[in-house]
């Protein structure tokens, strides 16, 4: 019934889209950097691309990156109390954190370092680029679902500017943001910002943490030196994150009061420092050079380990004709996780072995234009090697052995072919094929069962984008064939393990995004469908676990004046099996609908006041459902937030 209602609403809204001849969105004006680094318009990209702009982030009242991505077709944000948000593109399921490359201004955040994307101040975000099913040539191992690039605001060429903001909400939640920027002479641009967050969160604490608040604090520094045809830029971030989490609830307790603490509790406490440096210059009329690198340091206080990782990526773009070019590039990463605590193995204390991961790759991308037809090709070869250890436990969970391992993947080849037909100034239709690969992460390998094989995904998609009068449309259909899928299995062991499927997984789906721009009213309809089926092996014929077939978002923004708007968004999540129920043993979990509303008023003085309600009707739903086979077989629940109210102000100068 809910699905029928949503489809009828989308069709009904779509049929009333009539208005003036001047659309407020032009595809050619939106430049993406994720797919080719040097920038390309959405119109000239043979991939499924969604760009979440700063204006759209403000209209939906998003307070963090996860909320900003809600409603984007094909995107699922997975949360578990105490864990970092995971971005799932096109039904990767519980392993989505390793199947999506997340970038911050082009620098990968995936790897040994685990970064909480919600530490990025939402007020500093210029746009978020989402490329689904592609990105393997440019970014390599792990771009199975695609790439998400979070683009922050560049320093402005102004002497004095900045902002200050405060927000208060339910559960003693407080947010504070402060930013300032300036110009030194004619060449140097600087800005800095601070972001703070504290909250008791929706769920009650376990007894030992009942009075403790979650805390997040981030400092961001950015400097740019202007060249005649480019720039040199340095960025630094220091973040500290404390998250007091609680465990799952049994079904009866979830239905009675989902805000109660679970079966266990703990603290996740980390301190992260990130340095990034980039050099971008147009060497000649036909030759562009870009190189960027980074250093990450992440200290986990509760797990008592420190992770260091280095990254460098040079690229050269040569335009051999007006609209034809070739990009040569490569990248290198080297990471190490050092454990500070000793292990007690068979009663003897010994140093815990460190984890190490190193990768290097080279790639080439070519794009040729024949009139209105663009043809692109890409090839990447990557080598990945790492060292890790597994732990063997005996009776009473006594650690009896630590086994060192090493792995070497030298033939990780990725391919991409794209055809893009520009049939009008705003419209294009495209076909894309991508072969993407994924090797086990250090976390995967630390608890592995059976032989280790590289996962290979073949992605085929057809799509169309256009503006028709005041209506923007983006739609695509896709077919994904996955071999040796890496997944988390719990069927034979109550504690679970990682392994490769001994068969294939097929994902077939479609997605549609519509936006109608009237004089004062904007209407949005986003819907995606995916059918994830295991097609051979021990789970042959089963649905891939944890993936809902239907997702939808209906939204509306009404601008009473240029300074005052109200917004509402409805989100629908369809039924799915528990995220580790690959046997489809427990049946599908219920679907649900949530509604958010918000409003904002901007004074001419630079002051903005805003507020809103999230989960307006206080729907009881869950971030995650897992299964357990200890005792009686059952599903257990990690509740999502109930209704919350917030209000705040922001002053810009």
CA-based gyration radius: 24 Å
- Classify the secondary structure makeup into a structural class: mainly beta
Number of helices: 7
- Number of DSSP strand runs: 37
Point out poorly predicted stretches: 1-26
Shape: globular
How much helicity do the residues have? under 10%
* Largest sheet data: 22 strands, antiparallel, barrel
Mean pLDDT: 88
The percent range for strand residues is over 45%
Question: Could you give the distance between the termini?
Answer: 50 Å
Word description of this protein:
The chain has 653 residues and is mainly β. The protein contains seven helices and 37 strands. The strands form seven sheets. The chain has a 22-stranded antiparallel beta barrel. Strands 3-8-9-6-7 form a five-stranded mixed β-sheet. Strands 1-2 form a two-stranded antiparallel ribbon.
Task: Offer a quick outline of the entry.
With 653 residues, the protein is mostly beta strands.
List the defining traits of the structure above:
globular, mainly beta, single chain, 653 residues, 7 helices, 37 strands
